[in-house]
Structure formats: structure tokens, C-alpha cells
């Protein structure tokens, strides 16, 4: 159990909900596979394949949103509708109007949906109810919104806020690159993206390339700002920090994974739980250190914005 990305949100410390209550409320939106006329369904599934929707390891919680989507490309629907429209036009002697074509495309879609292939995926979310973290394993905030929307629909109240820091990631990353030095506990790796703030939106990307020296500083002096920067924390976790405070391409290094080997877990569940415990422990160290490197948390201690289920 290792996240590849981390979209980070804030819960109030000591979030006042029990694991049993959360389990019951998640069950309001349990996953149901697509019916014959459904294009997509989503709902909560067990993270470990048992009957429970909430998995607990050492005070850390794991939930998973299941999504199923019918694969029916619009081009296939369009082609089938056009072929049928030609046959109809040949029989009746004139082409179908705009509304008739729209109705025909909808009819074709309804007929093809039951035969369409389906694709399933899971999106995992980590909850630290004491530390006040909600982390979603999603490559973008837009993808994380699937989980947030499902939580809004399931829970009585979700006191959730965005993680905000005193310094913007862009400004901090620019200073680290200009000075050639990462904040305490971090090292700068060899991937970076710099983008112009001007109308041309010119961009420079470095991949496995040293970032010291005058070349990168020249781009900074010319007005380009970093939108992504690869970092390593404490020689244990490497990741890419984005301008939106997203943590991407997370990689737990050998020193962390070797701990799991030392535990001597001998079955799949023990390996899963051991990996989840190690991962959340590392996130519990990484996030405060990163916030400190960005000048501290803005409005620390605020309870966040309470998001209630949609009416």
C-alpha cells in the first residue's frame, strides 16, 4: 500500500467522528456496479476486499472510492447514428433534422450501453483523525474531487479546508533554486519545470539534469517561475512539489521499504498493513517539514470550511 500522489486537505485536529460512525455513513453510498443504462457509477468499496469500508491501522484510516465507467466512445455512437440516418433518409426521401438526429444518437447510445465494456478503478484516501490530514492518492485536484464529492454526499458534515502556507510553493521553489540550496531536511533533485508568466507562456523542463549553475538562474532572472520541482525528504521519500502544493510522483526509497522487509510479514494482509503504517508515518513527518519549509501553515488551527451534503 503505497500512494503515488498526495492531494492534501486539512481536517481539524481530533476530528470528532468515530470509526464506527464513519463506517456507517460511508455505507450510505456503497458502490453498486453499472446497470444496463448507466454510463458511470461510483461509491465506497472495501480498501482490502473484505466487508468493511473503513480500514484502520494504528490510528490511521484508509478508505477507497470505487468507480465504474462504460467505455462507449462518442465516435462509435456518431458513426452508428449517421449510418442509420442515411438508411432512414433513403427510405423517406429527405434528411433528418437536427432534433431527429439528436434523438437518434440518444437511441443508439441506449442500445449500445448494455454491450459496452466497463472499466473499474479505485481511488484511495488516507485519513489521520488526530493529526487532521486527509490525503487522496490522485494526480490532480480535479481527480481528487471525485472523492471529496462522494464524502460530501455520504457524511453528515465534512469540516474540510484547503492546506495553505505562508509562502507560495512557487516563490519558495524559486528561492531554493536561485540560492542553490534546499530547506533543512530536503535535497533538490534533477527534475524541474519553469514557466514564463508572460503571454507567451514559454516553458523549460529539466529531466534528470543538474539544476545548479547559471542556466537555471538565468531562466529565473528572465522571469520564468518554477511550477514543479523534484525533492527528496530526509533521504527517505522523493516527490515532485507543484505550484498548487500537490505532492506528485511519490517514491518511498529503499531505506523505508527495507523496514517492511525487516518486519517479516508473511501474508498479503500483513504486508498491506505494514506498508500502510510505514507510508502514513512518513507522510506524518514529511507534511509538517514541508509546511515549515513554506513558512508555516496559514491560519493554522482553523477548523476549515464545513462542507455538508448536497441537497
UniProtKB/TrEMBL annotation:
Keyword Cell inner membrane: no
A GO cellular-component term linked to this record: cytoplasm
Record key words, sorted: Cytoplasm, DNA recombination
Annotated GO MF terms: double-stranded DNA binding
Organism: Aromatoleum aromaticum (strain DSM 19018 / LMG 30748 / EbN1) (Azoarcus sp. (strain EbN1))
Top-level taxon of origin: Bacteria
Gene: rdgC
Name this protein carries in UniProt: Recombination-associated protein RdgC
Any one GO BP annotation for this protein: DNA recombination
Amino acid at each position: 500500500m503505497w500512494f503515488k500522489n498526495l492531494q492534501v486537505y486539512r481536517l481539524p485536529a481530533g476530528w470528532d467522528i468515530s470509526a464506527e460512525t464513519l463506517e456507517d455513513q460511508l455505507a450510505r453510498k456503497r458502490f453498486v456496479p453499472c446497470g444496463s443504462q448507466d454510463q458511470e457509477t461510483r461509491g465506497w468499496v472495501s480498501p482490502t476486499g473484505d466487508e468493511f469500508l473503513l480500514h484502520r491501522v494504528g490510528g490511521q484510516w484508509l478508505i477507497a472510492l470505487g468507480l465504474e465507467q462504460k467505455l462507449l466512445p462518442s465516435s462509435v455512437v456518431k458513426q452508428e447514428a449517421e449510418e442509420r440516418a442515411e438508411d432512414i433518409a433513403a427510405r423517406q426521401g429527405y434528411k433528418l433534422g437536427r432534433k431527429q438526429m439528436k434523438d437518434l444518437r440518444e437511441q443508439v447510445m441506449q442500445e449500445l450501453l448494455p454491450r459496452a465494456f466497463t472499466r473499474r478503478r479505485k481511488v484511495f484516501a488516507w485519513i489521520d483523525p488526530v493529526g487532521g490530514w486527509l490525503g487522496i492518492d490522485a494526480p490532480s485536484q480535479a481527480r481528487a474531487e471525485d472523492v471529496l464529492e462522494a464524502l460530501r454526499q455520504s457524511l453528515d458534515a465534512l469540516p474540510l479546508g484547503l492546506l495553505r502556507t505562508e509562502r507560495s510553493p512557487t516563490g519558495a521553489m524559486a528561492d531554493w533554486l536561485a540560492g542553490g540550496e534546499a530547506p533543512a531536511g530536503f535535497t533538490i533533485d534533477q527534475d524541474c519545470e519553469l514557466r514564463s508568466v508572460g503571454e507567451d507562456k514559454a516553458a523549460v523542463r529539466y529531466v534528470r539534469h543538474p539544476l545548479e549553475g547559471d542556466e537555471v538562474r538565468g531562466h529565473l532572472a528572465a522571469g520564468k517561475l518554477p511550477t514543479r520541482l523534484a525533492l527528496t525528504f530526509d533521504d527517505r521519500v522523493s516527490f515532485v512539489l507543484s505550484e498548487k502544493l500537490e505532492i506528485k510522483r511519490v517514491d518511498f526509497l529503499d531505506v523505508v521499504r527495507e523496514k517492511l522487509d525487516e518486519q517479516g510479514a508473511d501474508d498479503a494482509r500483513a504486508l498491506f498493513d505494514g506498508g500502510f503504517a510505514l507510508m502514513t508515518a512518513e507522510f506524518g513527518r514529511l507534511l509538517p517539514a514541508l509546511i515549515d519549509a513554506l513558512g508555516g501553515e496559514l491560519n493554522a488551527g482553523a477548523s476549515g470550511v464545513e462542507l455538508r451534503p448536497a441537497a
